[in-house]
Hints:
Blueprint: H1 2-9, H2 13-16, E1 34-37, H3 39-42, H4 48-60, H5 63-66, E2 70-72, E3 78-81, E4 87-89, H6 96-105, E5 109-114, H7 131-141, E6 145-149, H8 153-161, H9 166-187, E7 192-196, H10 203-206, E8 214-216, H11 225-233, E9 247-249, H12 262-274, E10 279-281, H13 290-296, H14 299-305, E11 314-319, E12 322-328, E13 334-340, E14 363-368, E15 373-379, E16 390-397
Parallel strand pairs: 1-2, 1-10, 2-5, 5-6, 6-7, 7-8, 8-9
Antiparallel strand pairs: 3-4, 11-12, 12-13, 13-16, 14-15, 14-16
Helix pairs in contact: 4-6, 7-9, 8-9, 11-12, 12-13, 12-14
This protein binds beta-D-galactopyranose.
Beta-D-galactopyranose (GAL) is lined by residues 39, 74-75, 120-122, 149, 151, 196, 220.
Amino acid sequence: MRIWSKALHGGCLLAAMGIGMGAAAQTVAATPPMGWNSWNFFAGKVTDKDIRNTADLLVSTGMRDAGYVYVNIDDTWEGKRDAHGRIQSNEKFPDMKALADYVHSKGLKLGIYSSPGPQTCARFEGSLGHEEQDAQTYADWGVDYLKYDLCSYRSAVMVAQAPNDMPAQYKLMREAYEKMHQAILKTGRPMVYSLCQYGWDSVWDWGPSVGANLWRTTDDISANFDRMSLNGRSQAGLAKFAAPGHWNDPDMLEVGNGKLTHDENVTHMTLWAMLAAPLIAGNNLTQMTPDIGSILMNKDVIAIDQDALGKQGDRVYAEGPVEIWAKPLKDGATAIAIFNFGEAVTEMRGIRLHLKEMGLLKTVKARDVWAAKDLGTIDDDWKTPVPRHGVVLLVVKR
Length: 398
Ligand code: GAL
């Protein structure tokens, strides 16, 4: 509620709902955005061909139909500006409009990336001083999603203009995000607006007021269990800041990347679903194994993430490496995840489910989501082995 009243107070409700000037009413990111982004696997090597291949594979693997509709080009697409200051794509992306048309022809949407600074994090051209022009260029190309990454804005503007004055630096940062928000609105094209400034200055508190549909809450994820679980676990306490149209973003998925084991990938997917986090896959779809496909496309897990109630889950109990998280769902059910972040299997000795703290009765009807198995009636004393770096995910009903 706090978020909505804040958005209203700031006169930004239309923007928060993604309603552009003159555009038909349309809710952007009513549920956490789902799609794919080039950075986690391709990084600076991504090309037009990779994006087209990915678009094809999102369709043929069933990913699109499972909900992954945004195809997001991250950093390194940017070329120089022309004589009129209009941003050009570089030689890796010969024709951005044609690429957008191709992506749209597959029933997908296109995302792009920039920075409020003079340069992006990979030192390509940023949007500083060209915000309206860039937003209009993206709209002309047919872009549906913008990730806006702080990068050099910090040193070139915040620190340069307000050395040793953090409140003034943060004000400059918020103004930069609001500036691009207004520029997007002016185009009249609905675009998902994704803030990337690593969670600084409690972005969850002001993200909605600058029109953000999602905001990164952490530093960069990487394809290892420690970093992934740190990003996910540090979302405890942030649930109250998420709502339809506005989501906490612990960063894009690494499912299928690096050396994550099956259980680690399952934990990653479960944690993000419990967090109502954006599900932006980051793997190379040309190499996706059936195991990874079945994790990314588990319909019941995706349904937890995308639940229309739009409530982020939170940690209910922690005992050493075991953590129990709960997420209320629209039909009155509750998703319960029992995580084991430890190095050995646990039998949950002495650990209860804490149903009462979730507002539930002493006994509930439970389904094991990953096992796709009904468990019948269980009570607070129910125990299960949880593998090393693994999780057991239940959906329970009265
Ligand atoms: C980082 C950002 C990454 C990626 C990268 C591109 O700042 O967190 O997700 O976008 O920049 O240079």
